[in-house]
Inverse folding.
């Protein structure tokens, strides 16, 4: 078993946050009508991707009927549809869509994870839940030795990225770097901001496909990867 596989085994057994444990398991029992015949994952959702990844994508948390159902972060929900389509267009994924853990999706030079590993009620983790999950992300990043840039999907992930860097001994300057689409914070494990591909942003046009593709094209450059397509 690799170190990343050992970390995944520990993550999926985590029960540090009683509110999140109760919620994720209740959603898995009650299900959504559209997925009534499916067996929900109902546990913490580990990160996944290429162990040699140079680009790490950090989201907020699994969706109640997305990653909490499929067992793979961003898989099986509308946000994931946008994310994986963009990763495919920019050379990080072998296919533009992911619906299950065994659908053949493969990531190249990319690792996808979330700041909080359990689906939270109303998609809003508490500060304590965020802090309880932080060590998992720290451990994960330490096991990705080729990582060069963290793409933060939304302000919550941006803040988590700053906290991860601080936990790894990299001080956060004052004033704290502000999140924005295309925002960058340099140094080891530089952060790159991207609006979260939630329906609130994609349906309103706040985030467009060219905007998201532009972030991942920039991530390739920051990570020392060749432009795509060549």
């Amino acid at each position: 078993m690799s170190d990343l596989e050992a970390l995944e085994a520990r993550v999926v057994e985590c029960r540090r946050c009683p509110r999140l444990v109760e919620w994720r398991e209740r959603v898995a029992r009650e299900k959504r009508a559209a997925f009534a015949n499916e067996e929900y994952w109902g546990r913490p959702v580990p990160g996944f991707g290429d162990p040699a990844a140079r680009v790490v994508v950090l989201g907020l948390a699994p969706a109640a009927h997305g990653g909490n159902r499929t067992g793979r972060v961003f898989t099986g929900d509308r946000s994931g549809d946008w994310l994986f389509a963009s990763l495919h267009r920019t050379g990080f994924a072998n296919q533009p869509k992911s619906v299950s853990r065994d659908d053949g999706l493969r990531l190249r030079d990319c690792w996808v994870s979330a700041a909080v590993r359990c689906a939270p009620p109303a998609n809003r983790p508490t500060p304590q839940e965020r802090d309880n999950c932080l060590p998992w992300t720290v451990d994960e990043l330490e096991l990705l030795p080729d990582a060069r840039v963290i793409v933060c999907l939304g302000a919550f992930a941006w803040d988590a990225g700053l906290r991860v860097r601080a936990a790894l001994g990299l001080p956060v300057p004052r004033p704290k770097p502000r999140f924005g689409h295309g925002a960058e914070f340099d140094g080891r494990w530089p952060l790159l901001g991207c609006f979260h591909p939630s329906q609130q942003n994609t349906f309103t046009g706040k985030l467009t496909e060219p905007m998201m593709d532009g972030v991942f094209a920039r991530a390739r450059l920051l990570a020392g990867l060749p432009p795509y397509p060549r």
Observations:
- The beta strands are 48-49, 55-59, 110-114, 149-153, 184-185, 191-194.
- The helical segments are 3-11, 18-30, 67-70, 78-89, 127-142, 155-167, 199-202, 209-222.
- Residues 3-222 form a domain with the Uracil-DNA Glycosylase, subunit E fold (CATH 3.40.470.10).
- The mean pLDDT is 96.
